Amino acid sequence: MDRRQFLASSVAAALAASLPVGRLLAAGRGVPVAGDIAAVTGSGGATMLERAALQELRDSLRGALLLAGDPGYDEARRVLNEAINRHPALIVQPTGVADIRNAVTFARERSLLLAVKCGGHSTSGKSTCDGGMQIDLSRFRSVRVDPVSRRAYVAGGSLLGEMDHEAMAFGFVTTAGTVSHTGVGGLTLGGGFGRVARRFGLALDNVTAADVVTADGRLLHASAGENPDLHWALRGGGGNFGIVTGFEFELHPMRRQVVGGDIVFPIERAKELLEFYGEFSSNAPDDLYVDAVMSAPPGGKSGVFLMSTCYSGPAADAERMLAPLRKLGRPIADSIGPLDYVALQRIHDRADPRNEGAYMKEGFIRDFKAGMIDALLDGFQTHPERGTVVFFQHAGGAIGRVAPEATAFAHRHVKHGMFSVISWKLDSDPAPHIRYIKDYWATLEPFTLGRYTNSIGDEPQKLVSDNYGVNLPRLQKLKANYDPGNLFRLNANVVPSV
What we know:
Helices cover about 30% and strands about 25% of the residues. The chain is of the alpha+beta class. The chain folds into 4 domains: about 1-30, no CATH class; about 30-140, Uridine Diphospho-n-acetylenolpyruvylglucosamine Reductase, domain 2 (2-Layer Sandwich), CATH 3.30.43; about 145-255, 2-Layer Sandwich (Uridine Diphospho-n-acetylenolpyruvylglucosamine Reductase, domain 3); about 260-455, Vanillyl-alcohol Oxidase, Chain A, domain 3 (3-Layer(aba) Sandwich), CATH 3.40.462. The strands form 5 sheets. Strands 14, 15, 16, 17, 18, 19, 20 and 21 form an 8-stranded antiparallel beta sheet that branches. Strands 7-8-12-10-11 form a 5-stranded antiparallel beta sheet. α1 (about 5-20) packs across α2 and α10 packs antiparallel against α13. The termini are far apart.
C-alpha cells in the first residue's frame, strides 16, 4: 500500500468510527453474541445465559458488554491486587444510569453473582468475580462543583483525584482518601478516611445526598428529606444497598498549599518511633494528620520507618506543629515542606505495574499500648521472598464527634487504623506468606476494636455482621427492604433479616 492509499484508508477508518455505526461497533453494540454462556448465581449454583438474552442486553446499552475474548475484557476484570485473577461471565461498562439499571435488572432476574468495580482497590477482590456479572464503572466518571452552594456532584465511577482536582480549583476540599486513583464509591460507602478527615469528618459524613440504583432496578434519591433510611444506610453500609450513580458532597474552604510529605528513619529505631508516634498523633490538633509506616522489603534488605504528614492549618503554625518530628534526629530522608494539596494526594499513588500479589489484615485501635508495640516488633519479619508492611492511618478528631448511630458507620471510637500487609512475587507460592501474616495478625488483633468495612475479606459471616455493632439490626431490616434477595453480596455483607 502506498502512502496515499494508507492515508485515505486511515481517514476512512477514523470517519467510520465517528459515525453512529462506528461508535456502535466500538462499544460492542450491534456485534452478534456468538452463543450461550455458562454463569454462576449468587448462591454458587450453575446457570446458562442464553445468546438471545445476552444480545438483548448488549443492544440495550450505550456502554459496552464485554465477554471473554473481547477487546478490553481482561483489563476490565483485573483489580489492583494482582493475586486476584477472576473471570466474570460478562462485564457491563455503563456510560449512564440507564445502563446500570438494565444491568442490575438482568443480574437480578437471573440471580447472577454480581460484582461492582469502581477503582478496583478491594484488596480481597470483591470488585470482580468468577462466573458472574461485573459492572465496571470506569466509563461513568464526572465531577461538577457548585462553588456557591459548596457542593460537588460526583458520578458513581469517579476517582478521588478527579474530585480533589475539581474542588480545589475553587478553593474547596472534602475528605477523599490518600491515594488519588481510589474509587469514590467504594471509599465513601464504607467510611472514607483521608488527610483532612480529622478536620471535616469521614467522606461519608460529607455526603448530603446520593442517587442509587437498588436491586429492583429503581433509581432512588436518598437524602435527609427523601428516603432518609436509605441515606443513613448508604453511609457506612458499604455496597449492600445498591449502586450509587451520583454523590452530592459538602465542600469546605481550605488553602491549596499545605505542609506535607514524608520523614524517613532506619527501621532499627522502630520501638522508639512507635512510642513517639502513638503519643504525638494521639494529641495532634484536627488540622494535623500523621500516618506511620514500618516497611521491610523482600530480600532481607534493611527496612525503614516513615511518618507521612499533612498539616492544613494556619501556615504560621506549621513549623511549631511539626517541630517534634524535626527533633527526632537525623533522618534518612525528609520531604516535608510546602506542597500543593492535590499533589500531596498523589504522592503514594501506585503507578508502576508491579508483578506482585498482596494480602492484608487490619483493625481499629483506640490507643498505643506497650503490649501492642512489643507484639508488633516481636512478630515483624524480613524475608527473602516477601515484603512486610505495618502502617497506621490517623483518625480521631471530627470523626469521633459523631454518634455511632448517626450513620451506619459505628466505629466512632477509632483513633487509628492498624494495617498489616504482605506482598510476594506472583511466581512464588502465596500460601506461606498468607499464613505468616495471619499468624502475625493473631497477635495484634486482641488490641483492636472493630474492622474497616472496606477492608473485610474472607472473614466468617458472624465477624462481618458483628462489626456493624449497634447498627446491625437496623441494617438487616433495611437490607430486607431494599435487597431481599441479597443481590449485592460481594461486600462486607449484611444478610437480610427474615
